[in-house]
Amino acid sequence: MKQQNISLENKTILVTGAAGFIGSNLVMELIRMGKPMQIIGIDNMNDYYDVSIKEYRLSQIETMAAEREDLSWRFVKGSIADKNLINQIFTEHKPSVVVNLAAQAGVRYSITNPDVYIESNLIGFYNILESCRHSYDDGQAGVEHLVYASSSSVYGTNKKVPYSTEDKVDNPVSLYAATKKSNELMAHAYSKLYNIPSTGLRFFTVYGPAGRPDMAYFGFTNKLRNNETIQIFNYGNCKRDFTYVDDIVEGVKRVMRAAPEKKMGEDGLPVPPYAVYNIGNNQPENLLDFVDILQQELICAGVLPADYDFEAHKKLVPMQPGDVPVTYADTKALEEDFGFKPNTSLRDGLRKFAEWYKEFYM
């Protein structure tokens, strides 16, 4: 087990992508911790998907934060690709812990809209790294830990499963995956050159209430409710390591408090205080089983009628460009270092999503 070497109490924490799915849930969990702290959130609130969901997440944060007198919450609407804005936030607030979750998401969107991936995922992350670097200027304490989102997409079409962080990941099959691998390489370089403790987290197919509408379970729900046909890729022969958002957030929270240690090598130079972990359910589910459980829970929640003809609304189709047939996380390192393994069952997670969907849309 890694020792916790960072206390979040009375610290300033910067969460980028704070109106996003994982970011908003992380902020709410930090508020629930009941510790005095200052949380700064930034998000550009782009319209890649329904902005009303992002606004809903922010309203939940505002409600929770308002009940805490010992906690400061501030939201900044802006892009991490805006270097001046990021510099200003670091200069004004001096965050001790930075969690970079801001990114242009989506494998398929990167095929037709590459520009936004370069802007957010590369230039934006570079700006975060540069501000972390300069946080130590003039003898300041600086950033104690940079935690950032990577993705299971970096594994590409690796044949060996489960995917381990020890595997080579040099063959991305989408620009999105390439930007996430680039993030890991950039972070490693900055950890080596400037002794910045950084940890990358490869997330595996995150789902749950108020999630991203571009994800399969959400898109399927919208189409089934509209009496449309859903397409199941690779003729259903896909497996995904679906990971419930609360499990992801618990993993992030534990990682935040245990930064890689700063050490000097035999050459008198810093050994990079750098780590990468998988966060996944370690139990890949067949896509056909997944959609079957989803439709059952949608019926239970009253989103679909009890006599819904599911078979008439599904179509098996070939694989899409950029997709991979299986994602499967080896989470041994996460378990050994943090004593944690995601454990929410797919049925429990989809039930909570279906109940939220009914409340939000119906």
UniProtKB/TrEMBL annotation:
<protein>
    <submittedName>
        <fullName>GDP-mannose 4,6-dehydratase</fullName>
    </submittedName>
</protein>
<keyword id="KW-0812">Transmembrane</keyword>
<keyword id="KW-0520">NAD</keyword>
<feature type="domain" description="NAD-dependent epimerase/dehydratase">
    <location>
        <begin position="13"/>
        <end position="265"/>
    </location>
</feature>
<dbReference type="Pfam" id="PF01370">
    <property type="entry name" value="Epimerase"/>
</dbReference>
<dbReference type="InterPro" id="IPR001509">
    <property type="entry name" value="Epimerase_deHydtase"/>
</dbReference>
<keyword id="KW-1133">Transmembrane helix</keyword>
<dbReference type="InterPro" id="IPR036291">
    <property type="entry name" value="NAD(P)-bd_dom_sf"/>
</dbReference>
<keyword id="KW-0472">Membrane</keyword>
<feature type="transmembrane region" description="Helical">
    <location>
        <begin position="12"/>
        <end position="31"/>
    </location>
</feature>
